[in-house]
Amino acid sequence: MPQNVKRRRGRGRDSAAASHSSRSKVHLRLRVNGEEQEVACAPHSTLLEVLREDLRLTGTKHGCELGECGTCTVLLDGRPQLSCLLLTLECEGRPIVTVEGLAEGPRPHPLQIAFAELGAAQCGYCTPGILCAARSLLDARPSPTRQEIREALSGNLCRCTGYLKIFEAVELAARRMKDPAAQPSEETLHGRRL
Amino acid sequence: MAVGSDGRGLRVVGKPVRKVDGLSKCAGVTLFADDIVLPRMLFCKLHRAPVPHARIVRVDISKAARMPGVMAVLTGKDLPIPFGILPVSQDEHALCLDKVRFVGDPVAAVAAVDEDTAFDAMNAIEVEYEPLDAMMSIEEAIRKPSPRIHEYGDEGNIHKKIALEFGDVERGFHDADQVFEDTFYYEGSTHLPMEQHAAVAAVDPDGKLTVWSSTQTPHYVHRALAKVLNMPPARIRVIACPNGGGFGGKSDPFNHEIVVAKLSLLIGRPVKVTLTREEVFYCHRGRHPVLMQIKTGVTRDGAIKAMHFKSYLDGGGYGSYGVASTYYTGALQTVTYPVENYKFDGLRCFTNKPPCGPKRGHGTPQPRFALEVHLDKIAERLGIDPAALRLGHLVPPQSLTANYLRVGSMGLAKCIDAVVEGSGWKQKFRHLPSGKGIGLACSSYICGAGLPIYWNNMPHTGVQLKLDRGGGVAVFCGEIDIGQGSDTVLAQVVAEVLGIDPYDIRIVFGDTDLTPVDLGSYSSRVTLMMGNAAIQAAERARELLATAVSEKLGIPAERVGFGGGQVFDVEGPERALSFADAVVAAEARFGTIGTVGSYTPPPSAARYKGSGVGPSPAYSYSAAVVELDVDPRTGWVRVDRVHLAHDVGRCINPVLVVGQVEGSVYMGLGEALMEEQVFRANRGGVHRQPSLLEYKSPTTMEMPDVVTYIIEDPDPNGPFGAKEVGQGPLLPIAPAVVNAVYDAVGVRIDEVPVTPEKILKALDSPAKRFGPKGVPEVRWPDPIRVPTPWEGGTGRAAADRRPAEARR
């Protein structure tokens, strides 16, 4: 038997830890999307679990819970991190940004608009993680090259898009953050015409 | 509606409209199945078999059942009614009854107050197995008829054997100038959607069951639940959540969906299951591994006089869509280049591995790979440029193939021209420096299957409209958006007909209580079928509005036009009502405004047994040119650029079309170069790499540039002329890669994925080839013989089934 077929989602966990979880919880203060949040969770809870199950921030998705796909990427201290590999305990008091925190009030982040406009989100499941990784890239490199975008997103798997519309959406968002009138190229929207 | 063949006159169709669900997905507010949380919800885990083939001697659930927090434990006897997607393969049980057929086959299920408790209870279940000999390959399953994996099927461990002959291939080979034969192997691969399958079931106090699931086929899940739970379908509601990727992997009704429904009925509380990534690998239903032999007789200029195609499919442990997959490996060879006489022998084995089923391109990428590489070799031997060979022999539009597939619009010539010109093919082919290569391949795909999966004479899809006094339009359809953009296509089509903004439309989808049946997001059927139904529903609404407005304006109804949110006199557009006022006028005149539309494909020309697979209302066409680099020291392949031209009939939304092309190219490259769903025969049949890290798929670092050319050759059967684009562009990628590798380093890799190891072995071999040596000996049945249209055939089988020789 491949032992991990039986694992809870992705991780192995022994019974002692599991029954422990139902008895004693730790009390933590988290800073999520600029808000102070108090949670009581099992000490072995991952940030992913606490975000989705305790705080109901289900915008953060999961694809493996083993740190392999990047789907659960959030920003911790402004840097992209795999929330499935982080213990919530480690995150106390540190700024956490999820996809729900990218917009400014009712105004989506330029990345969100560009992703929607160019079809960089097809099924949309890997999108929240990729948006967080891309946001971190643009914070550090406001005009990234194609190669820098490839590298920044190389830990995020997407099965729908072939990544190209994602690259173009990051580039468009970067341009729009300097020039709000920036438009996608004709070829991006229509393919190449002979 | 008056629409020019060039699309002039269209206001919404053909425009790069932002996906109607795009911003929700980018905001993270779209609810996928695992995002659903209900009060008092329990968690389910499945206990899965650790052995590939065994009789179940004993299942002991007592320890699990006694654990605090465990609410129920199920075993096979709680759900004894079999199910399966195809009526001919009702061979699955929600939990195994008497034997297990692959590692991961579920044997028992628990529901508990939280996931940790469910996990512990799952591990506390004890199962005693009596191991049986396991079949781990096509050859083994053919060689060893016993022990049988299933008690049904054509013989031993052969699930299905097919033999069809159109015309007389022996005569065709005799008439040919040259006959070529090749053997190919296409490895299995899996869909790998980023979302793991999840389902939630809940029961109302009045006994009505609701199941939310990440499914591409809510209608079939509805039917399977009613059957296995032995409940009236009217008491069951299936809601398909937006799929976090499907690619065919969420098209079967699944054991976990039935299990949570049963648990919820037993306990009276909501129950959720979410598969682990590893369970998704074992759930599978992906690309069949296929061994193929192709023999083709051609004239000196490359016309195909006869083709004999044999395919051997490794089906895994259950039927799934497999019978259809097997037919598909022999169906679409004829729709690109005319095949004068055609013979197909196909078989599918049962093996002790996760069941194979439909993955993007369903049963077609494998034979298309074989055919297009085979043609590349033929072109070289005949001394004809591969592009010219294909361009010289194209199936004419509006024609019947040897196997009675009715081709409508056919834009392959334009596709080939586009990629040849765009890539600079003529300057590059056979002229690039060693290590650099360029390869070409073409393909075609169906736009929906002509027949439904279960026999009935009802429509394949329905669309219902509700027009609001405020000018909003609610569109109800059972379709489900799996990322391909079907919600947006639906909104655009309705908006086009009614002349309104697509964002004034609300789409209600995939809900068996609320929406008319749509058979599901598979076989590239949604745009064509749903689109036609939507046009019908919208035109009926338009007629009501036109009548009411014509009375108000005092003009004939034919003069009423729709566009820009206005309903107006086409001879004086200043005489107009807003769309909302037009709805008010129509509602005052006729009462509440609601209309319906539906779609049934045209009857097929094919009337022989087995002709249910292949016919389609229309066929899309693609051509690809791949440019790559091969390092002859390491065998490493780097793809530089892919040119892909796709005949989509009419482009409803260019951003969606380009997105489907790029996604198909990506997935095709994964299959061509790295993806392998393979199992360890010597380690008890476990998956070799059931993780996203070790199952290699292309990342941002491997993805090359893709140049997409949208070709529009409107098909009379398509909505506004539209054809499919979700699957077709995947098909030419693997053969174009293999043909380019040959151009680069002169070796033939007759097997995908093309790994560096295979290239090095081929470089070292005297034949400069890597691939299967041959095919197993099989006694094929006498074929069903169907005279071709050019022999005066009617699409029916001849009474005489004797071999061709005896007939002559």
Topology summary:
The complex is a heterodimer of chains A (194) and B (808).
Chain A: H1 15-23, E1 26-32, E2 35-41, H2 47-54, E3 73-76, E4 79-82, E5 95-97, H3 110-118, H4 127-140, H5 146-152, H6 164-178, H7 186-190
Parallel strand pairs in A: 1-5
Antiparallel strand pairs in A: 1-2, 3-4, 3-5
Chain B: H1 22-27, E1 42-48, E2 54-60, H2 62-66, E3 70-75, E4 99-100, E5 106-112, H3 115-124, E6 126-131, H4 138-143, E7 158-166, H5 169-175, E8 178-186, E9 198-203, E10 209-213, H6 218-229, E11 236-240, H7 255-267, E12 271-274, H8 277-283, E13 290-298, E14 304-314, H9 322-331, E15 339-349, H10 365-382, H11 386-391, E16 399-400, E17 406-407, H12 412-423, H13 425-428, E18 436-446, E19 461-467, E20 473-477, H14 486-498, E21 505-509, H15 526-553, E22 560-563, E23 566-569, E24 572-578, H16 579-590, E25 594-599, E26 619-630, E27 637-647, H17 654-673, E28 679-680, E29 686-687, E30 705-711, H18 733-745, E31 748-749, E32 751-752, H19 756-764, E33 769-770, E34 784-786, H20 804-807
Parallel strand pairs in B: 1-12, 7-34, 8-32, 10-11, 14-15, 20-21, 27-30, 31-33
Antiparallel strand pairs in B: 1-5, 2-4, 2-6, 3-5, 7-15, 8-13, 9-10, 9-12, 13-14, 16-17, 18-26, 19-20, 19-25, 22-23, 23-24, 26-27, 28-29
Helix pairs in contact in B: 6-7, 10-18, 14-15, 15-16, 17-18
Characterize this entry briefly.
The complex is a heterodimer of chains A (194) and B (808). Chain A is an alpha+beta fold and 194 residues long.
Describe this structure in words.
The complex is a heterodimer of chains A (194) and B (808). Chain A has 194 residues and is of the alpha+beta class. Chain A has two domains: 25-101, Beta-grasp domain (Ubiquitin-like (UB roll), Roll), CATH 3.10.20.30; 110-180, [2Fe-2S]-binding domain (DNA polymerase, domain 1). Chain A has helices at 15-23, 47-54, 110-118, 127-140, 146-152, 164-178, 186-190, and strands at 26-32, 35-41, 73-76, 79-82, 95-97. Chain A has a five-stranded mixed beta sheet, sandwiched between helices. Chain A is elongated, with a radius of gyration of 18 Å. The relative contact order of chain A is 0.12. Chain B is of the alpha+beta class and 808 residues long. Chain B folds into three domains: 33-132 and 193-246 and 250-283, Alpha-Beta Complex (Aldehyde Oxidoreductase, domain 3); 163-189 and 285-451 and 607-770, Aldehyde oxidase/xanthine dehydrogenase, molybdopterin binding domain (Aldehyde Oxidoreductase, domain 4, 2-Layer Sandwich), CATH 3.30.365; 458-599, Aldehyde oxidase/xanthine dehydrogenase, molybdopterin binding domain (Aldehyde Oxidoreductase, domain 4), CATH 3.30.365. Chain B is 27% helix and 25% strand. Chain B has 20 helices and 34 strands. In chain B, strands 3-5-1-12-9-10-11 form a seven-stranded mixed beta sheet, sandwiched between helices. A seven-stranded mixed beta sheet of chain B has the order 32-8-13-14-15-7-34, with helices on both faces. Chain B is globular, with a radius of gyration of 27 Å. Chains A and B meet through helix 1, helix 3, helix 4, helix 5 and helix 6 of A and helix 1, strand 1, helix 3, helix 8 and helix 12 of B.
